[in-house]
Amino acid sequence: MQLGDLVRIDAEQDRVFHGAKGIIVNIVESNTYKQGFHYEVQTLDGHTIVALAYEVEPLENEVKIPN
User: Fold this and answer.
1) Which of 7, 27, 45, 53 is the most buried (most CB within 10 A)?
2) Gap between the Cα atoms of 3 and 40, Å rounded
3) Which residues contact 29 (CB under 8 A, 6 or more apart)?
4) For residues 39 and 1, what is the distance between their CA atoms, to the nearest angstrom?
5) At 38, phi and psi to the nearest 5?
6) Residues in Cβ contact with 52 at an 8 Å cutoff, skipping those fewer than 6 apart
7) Average pLDDT score over residue span 2-25
């Protein structure tokens, strides 16, 4: 995934943000987490949260745009 991608948070242990939609606003490379990076996601209601790769799933347009 890359900056600007629309994602859904899939973190069942997080009762507040599970299922929230948002946009990836930053990809932070560090050794804080074992995978070596994490995402900063701004939810559509204005919160900015930290999410690991397994906690975000990409969203596609759910509407077909006619040619």
Assistant:
1) 7
2) 10
3) 36, 37
4) 9
5) -150, 165
6) 33, 35, 38, 39
7) 92
CA 60 to chain centre: 13
Q: If you ran DSSP here, which 8-state letter would residue 47 be given?
A: -
pLDDT value for 30: 83
What average pLDDT does this structure show over 3-13?
92
Structure-token match 């995402």, residue found: 39
Q: Are 55 and 38 in contact (CB under 8 A)?
A: no
CA 33 vs CA 21, 50, 53: distances in Å: 23, 11, 11
Give, as one character, the DSSP assignment of residue 53.
G
